[in-house]
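Second attempt. The first submission of PepSY domain-containing protein had a stray character pasted in from the spreadsheet, which I only caught after the job came back as garbage. Lesson logged: always re-copy from the clean sequence file. Corrected sequence (102 aa) follows.
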Amino acid sequence: MMNRNRMIPGLAGGLAVAVLVSAGIAMADGDDRHDRDDDMPRDGWMSLLEVAEQLESQGYTPYEIEIDDGAYEVMMIDGQGMVIETDIDPTTGEPLQRRRDD
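This time the job returned cleanly.
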């Protein structure tokens, strides 16, 4: 039979670890709406492949496409070898803003 004096510190230590882990998970989750882009409805959105093909037909080489703030954020290389970052409207494929990435 286990000694009660040894069991209580073990339970308290286990409880403390569980509380700290839970707090760490809650802090990591945060309240950043940018982290919830995966929850957005995507009815009518172009697929990633469609966006990439459209950009390639315009002479760009996309190498990273991700969802950010309700749009596709694209990193691509233009015909002169410049790296460009642009936001793409997910329903039309039109650029929302384009900027060179220095």
